[in-house]
Design a protein that fits this description.
alpha/beta, single chain, 5 helices, two-stranded antiparallel ribbon
């Protein structure tokens, strides 16, 4: 169903303030490809080879995952919270574009979609990490943009990024 939606989709830009709320699958793929090409041009042989990125769908998290994979030859696990496309809304396509490009380059790429604070997603991440060579990671990048989270005891925590 997802592929059929993309084939029929006419993506019109929708902007709220300074944020575009729509995404085009081909545009996302091209953006990831260009970033990967830039990373390859700055390849670092001594970079970590097994990387976990928590918050990998966009921004610093996606850029870090791209750099680790294509600029350092790392196999990666990415935890993200992406919405699927529907009849009325576009989805988030960067993770799928990253996975396809990483696999084409022979890298292991495990992408886990869901609430990074949930036990289910933590378990899936542990299973994915176990599939990496050596069954562990060399680097954890935490780039989660979650304004609120509720722990197992029901306490809610709020966070904010404040520039200094």
């Amino acid at each position: 169903m997802q592929k059929n939606l993309e084939d029929k989709m006419i993506v019109e830009p929708k902007v709220k303030g300074f944020i575009c709320t729509t995404a085009h699958p081909a545009g996302c793929a091209e953006s990831v490809r260009l970033q990967a090409e830039h990373a390859k041009a700055h390849y670092l042989e001594t970079a970590p080879k097994r990387v976990l990125v928590i918050g990998s769908s966009g921004g610093y998290g996606l850029a870090s995952r791209i750099m680790a994979c294509f600029g350092g030859g790392a196999d990666t696990v990415g935890i993200h919270f992406d919405k699927a496309p529907s009849e009325t809304r576009t989805g988030t396509y960067t993770t799928r574009a990253f996975d396809q490009l990483a696999q084409k380059e022979g890298r292991l790429s495990y992408s886990i979609n869901g609430d990074a604070f949930s036990q289910e997603i933590k378990n899936k991440a542990a299973e994915a990490i176990a599939q990496l060579p050596g069954g562990q990671v060399d680097l954890v990048i935490y780039s989660l943009a979650a304004p609120k989270r509720t722990d197992a005891a029901g306490r809610t925590y709020s966070s904010v990024i404040k520039p200094i």
